[in-house]
Automatic annotation (TrEMBL):
<dbReference type="Pfam" id="PF01865">
    <property type="entry name" value="PhoU_div"/>
</dbReference>
<dbReference type="InterPro" id="IPR052912">
    <property type="entry name" value="UPF0111_domain"/>
</dbReference>
<protein>
    <submittedName>
        <fullName>Putative phosphate transport regulator</fullName>
    </submittedName>
</protein>
<comment type="similarity">
    <text>Belongs to the UPF0111 family.</text>
</comment>
<dbReference type="InterPro" id="IPR018445">
    <property type="entry name" value="Put_Phosphate_transp_reg"/>
</dbReference>
<dbReference type="InterPro" id="IPR038078">
    <property type="entry name" value="PhoU-like_sf"/>
</dbReference>
Length: 215
């Protein structure tokens, strides 16, 4: 049983940390690709970017599944099993939303990708870097909990910025776009990007929960 008296004297498996780090790396690669994708209003290029992002999404899914398999085969884990599982799931969600955005760009083929999409895509990249830094410190949680808290706060700040960008986008969209079909296309594409920042903030919340329990 985790966190029992006995477990305190039993070596804990550290193999989860490299897997979580790889998952964070996947977000960074996918975020770079989605930035390039939304900067190029070209359907053929969008298809190529989607293929590359899909590769990262599949890689993230495999890593998430690996975490689940390791949890089932590991006796003593560094943190609660549920916390590790939730953390891996939510990190994977960030990549999933990036992939969903790229997919909708390809499927909907909007006349114009909103300029605000670039802003949120760049915020997602900032999320990826903050998640990388936070995850890289988890194996020395007790020593660097304050630093990890700063990264979690950064994720919250980024999410607030993304909310503002998204809200301003919606105001402008409904005021100036007259084509109802294009409104739907652009709104759904932007919504997936905004959801990615929400998921990234949730990663920070899970990490803060871990800090409260173990730091």
């Amino acid at each position: 049983m985790n966190n029992s008296f006995f477990s305190k004297f039993t070596p804990k498996e550290t193999k989860f940390f490299p897997i979580l780090t790889e998952m964070a790396d996947v977000i960074l690669v996918a975020s770079d690709l989605i930035i390039e994708c939304v900067q190029n209003n070209n359907h053929e290029l969008a298809i190529e970017y989607y293929k590359k992002i899909k590769e990262q999404e599949k890689k993230g899914d495999k890593l998430s599944a690996k975490v689940f398999d390791e949890l089932n085969s590991t006796f003593i884990t560094p943190f609660d099993r549920e916390d590790i599982h939730h953390l891996a799931d939510k990190i994977d969600d960030v990549t999933d939303y990036i992939n969903s955005c790229a997919k909708k760009i390809v499927l909907y083929n909007p006349k114009q990708i909103p300029a605000k999409a670039v802003e949120i895509a760049k915020l997602i990249r900032e999320d990826a870097i903050a998640i990388q830094k936070a995850v890289n410190e988890l194996d020395v949680l007790k020593k660097n909990s304050n630093k990890i808290k700063e990264y979690c706060l950064e994720l919250k700040v980024i999410e607030n910025k993304a909310d503002d960008v998204y809200e301003n986008f919606l105001i402008d969209l409904f005021e100036n776009q007259k084509d109802a079909v294009e409104i739907i296309k652009m709104k759904e594409i932007m919504s997936e990007l905004e959801k990615a920042t929400d998921a990234a903030e949730h990663v920070g919340k899970i990490i803060k929960t871990i800090i409260v329990k173990y730091a």
